[in-house]
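Box S2. Input/output pair 1.
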Amino acid sequence: MRLFYITISILIGNIFGIQAQSKIDKAAAIEQSLLRSKELLQKNIDSSLFYANKALLLSKSATNDTLIAKSHLQKSSALIYKKGFSEADSLLQNNLTKKLPKHIEGQTWHNLGTIQYYKQDFKKALDIYLKAAKILEQAKNSKQLVNTYSNIGSINAALKNFKNAQIYLERALPLSDFNEILRLQILVNLCNTYYEQKLFKKYTDTIFEAERLAIKYNAKHILSVVYTNLAIYYSEEGTDYDRALIYGKKAISLKKELNQTSTLNVTYNNVGHSYVKKGEYDTAIKYLDSAMPGAKGVLKSYIYNNLKDSYFGLKDFKTAIHYADLKDRLKDSITNAQQKEQVAELTEKFESEKKQQQIDILDTKTELQALTISQQKYLLIVLVAFGLLFLVLGYFGFKNYKTKQQLDTVLLQQKLKKTQLNPHFLFNALQSIQNFIHQNDKEKSNSYLASYSKLIRLILEKSDENFISVSDDRLALESYLNLQQLNHDNSFSYTIITDDSIEEDFDMLPNLVTQPFVENAILHGLKNISEGIITIKYYKNENVLYVSIGDNGKGFETKQDDSKKLHTSMSMAIIKEQLKNLNRSSKNFRGNILINSSSKGTEVLLSFTVS
């Protein structure tokens, strides 16, 4: 399995130690512009370039070679971000024509190496970085040297020179104490070089320190890499498949939250592999099927191999042989692709597919003709022998078809209703977010905007589906409750619990059926309650999925003939009709609602059975 590396900073040398060189106002303004450009480098590249140009113009007017060289360095960094390699190279070559302090000369060579790195000329980039490191060692500039060492280590890792990668990353690590985020990035790359060399004691020590720092700084992108690599380690080395599953599922959850769909199939395959090794083949197949979309090359070969082992474990030898053949064919195609020229291969493939398509068309026509003749004979026999029975069956079949059409219409109407959230709720949420923006409260406005966008996205994406996963339902409720807390000035709190018995990605329930009950609890159950609490729990008992929605409100009165009545604002008829239609249209599905209310609160218990 392929381990994931972290690119250090972006392989561009930051300009450290910017200090005023004189008391002249112009020099101070130059330093201030350079500092501002550096601060904006990874936030707003165009603004960073603006301040770098401003510093360069002021430096030229001051005729100060050192300040000009600093300005060239900072502008080249911004240009590299924008892939303006030619102009950046010209600025840096200009620096090398002058006699400059060692630390500036070293930074100049560092940025020249970065240009070659982005041009994919790793050998040339490595030679330049080694020259930069030698100069920076003379200058004793540890803050810049840590970036150069890190980049040398990263390139050696990419070239499979893991021993050299280890040497330079270990040199960089103690120099990174001034910046724990930079240290975290080095740790991830370093632990992977240990893994490649099977230095597992060093690997685990390093990666768990990386996990601690990633959690400390809430670095979710890096944490997803750490969890992915831990899942690979515990699975591939066969040390602990249960831990491999824990870290693999954590990685899946983070990647879904961060929308890292491009590498999600790798992690699904890792989890599936661990289930194969544990002998839980049915669960393994679920994850491996999820890994298949978008998989290519070697990854696809791994997936086929794991599917082969799964079906072999289930004694489904026919399917196992099918995936073994797919794996062998894929392996052969990869080998052939490496041995042939791309144009010749594409031409051959096109001609082959064209011929095969013609053969398939002919075969299909032959099969259709044979099928038509067989059907005609069968129909003739049936019409002669069972004419009356055929008419009766046709009549009931037509009635069943009309009933199904009506049912589909009802389901479509239900879907349309579910997309229409309470406009007052949406308007109030947007108005509250707008107030935070006007108050310049970036943290709250960003948080609530994220919840708002997640909720709307889920509703739009899932509106045409009858069922959604527990994972998506939970995400929708979290986003909805966050916005309701905003609208109600945080007058209530909530807890959402997913029991260990739940497979969040695979256990399904009716689409957004839980949201109306949560809304009812907020608007009516917790009305006039200053410290309201809403508790939601997903759990399974055998084949039954339960969702419990409770509040600590005052409850409501019930009548003997209607003991399950909700608060009057809740449209129970629509939900009951939805479950009734699903009970009829979805095979082996059963949905039920149970409501208990007392002076201590109300609990709605939804149960869904899929056998």
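Box S3. Input/output pair 2.
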Amino acid sequence: MSDIPVLISDLAVILIAAGIVTLLFKWLKQPVVLGYIVAGLLAGPAVEWLPSISDPANIRIWADIGVIFLLFAMGLEFSFKKLMHIGGTAGIAALTIVVGMMTAGYSVGRLLGWSQMNCLFLGGMLSMSSTAIVYKAFDDMGLREQRFAGVVLGILVVEDLVGVVLMVLLSTFAVSREVEGMEMANSILKLGAFLLFWSVMGIFLIPTFLQKTRRLLNDETLLIVALGLCLGMVLLATRSGFSSALGAFVMGSLLAETVEAESIERIVKPVKNLFGAIFFVSVGMMIVPSMLVQYIVPILLLTLLVIVGQILFSSFGILLSGQPLKIAIQSGFSLTQVGEFAFIIAALGVSLRVTDNFLYPIVVAVSVITTFFTPYMIRLAEPAYRFLDKRMPPSWKAFLDRYASGSNTIRHKSAWNRLLKSLVRIVATYTVLCTFFILIFFQYVVPWIQTYISGIRGALICLLIVLGVISPFLRAIIMKKNHSAEFQQLWKDNKYNRGPLVSLIAVRILLCIGIVTAIVAKLFNVALGLGLAIAVVVIGMIVVSKRLKKHSILLERRFFRNFSERELEQERKSPIKRNFVNSLLLRDLHLASFDVVQGAMSVGRTLKELNYRQKYGVSVVSIIRGEYRINIPGGEERLYPFDKVIAVGTDKELEDFRQDITTRNQRYKKELAEKYQGDVSMEQFAIEAGSKLIGLTIRQSGIRDLATCLVIGIERGDRSLMNPTPDTVFEEGDVVWIVGEKSKLLRLAEGKRI
């Protein structure tokens, strides 16, 4: 027999160690991520008396794949629509946290005498909390329905996006070995253009592709297509000079906008879990226990920095966004851990050889400690708020209340503000699209065409092709918002508005003329004046073309239909409209969903019998049953297994409701298990002389009602009575065939009445 390849044997060691340790951590009710890290420590070179891996290079390959699928899964949970809907709270708070923690981490690193690059990477590692740990902690502690939990998860969504951007910037710094303002601005612009271009193209193309092939997609083909798209974007990102993680995250966020997002997330989860486990195990392999002892003081200092810094910066950022003090304190105490991005950024520093060897195990140790304390910090939030609320000066409390209520009022924006904001977004988006298409066209398409068709003919064909592609975008730059309500209002309100409005149109026309002039000059090498004249004619034809107008409108409609496809589907299935949900949040009320599980005590009972409003103070506003929903159900509406009940109430009312229902269901299931615990089997017994069953009918014997057994046949002499009626009388010598629980069948066979 041939030897097993080293790659397979190393993978076996990793998965065996991970399996054993994670089972132990699940039993101890600790986060599985910690188990993976401990498994890596045991399977790594640090523990010599246990089997360890043979070739660390292979594990790095598996770990790189793990990072790709981790970021892909994070992208599936992130969506541009979600980012737009979570409002300013998450954005303001996340940016406050990242800037504050990066500054604090960099400053502490410099105080410890570390190099500038070590300090930069350290700040990035400490600036983001763990989505997986917080989500799991909320789930285990039953806090996902609390109002502050939505704020925390929104912040984590923004932090994921900031983390991806931060990885690109740190990679740029690592390559240049210094921090330069122009280099940073160039990197940010390049990254923004890449994200904008592929986001627009992905939203336009991917949902359309999935819609056309929907009848061909099952779990198998959908998984292959999704992973193929993920790795394809990884190749595009790396070819463009970005990291593979960025490409995976971008494709995940694009697929998150499709109707198939939930299905993709479900089928990709096992793949993500497998390679994610390998990645976290590889993190543990890089821990050197002797180095941890040597750097115990920095570890404890950074742990304290993370806990205190996250509480302060998170609470301040959330207060700044206009949330109440209680929400800010609860959210701040929930974010006191170092997240998965710390390991990814640490691995980036190691792979680029710009960070020292001691930084990786130090950050891993800090992450382990802060993760362990996460549930306890969440529980401390309520006492901390009460302590602060009692000792805060009344004037401060009044100011915070006014600020929170003032930030939630609707601010009416002027027509100029709305118009200019829309125009900037439109012009920037379509200009970036035009620029990318032109660059790609001149780099790949023009050389290929001129290879076969040279001279003026080739140049003319190239011009027609590139203008045909970008003409809808040029028309959108010039014509969008010229007939909007804001534009018409400003035109009619004041004659002095007309000059600036015409100027806005002229500026956009000049921009498009400049784009076309650059293309003509590049292809034909003509004088500037001639190129400008040709560009003016082309732009004029684009503006007056009715066919192009129709084509441009159709493209735009398809884009927005694809962009809103998942949201519209969720809105159709959601029990309550979003504006109603937002108004509830301002009144300290919110919606929460509860699943009616099989065997729950509420199954088959009416809402009137359950009386949730009187018992808990919550109101059932909707019941989702498969594809249907029952809004504002009546008291006679019954609950069935797999129903989703939507209730409205305060945090405390919903939490009391959830805990009581969970306790009652567990007790009810236990009672059912004790009552109906036997397996069903089929037996036969003979009715002998003296049996108490002789002379009784099947109904009178209580076999069906009391013993919960079923008589399916009686052999009486040469006759066989199949499925006898309840009035059939038992006679001596009958052979009775019966189905029921084993213990009860034996009692019947002995002639005992149940």
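Caption for Box S3: Strands lie at 590-595, 619-625, 628-631, 644-649, 680-686, 710-716, 719-722, 735-741. The longest helix spans residues 415-452.
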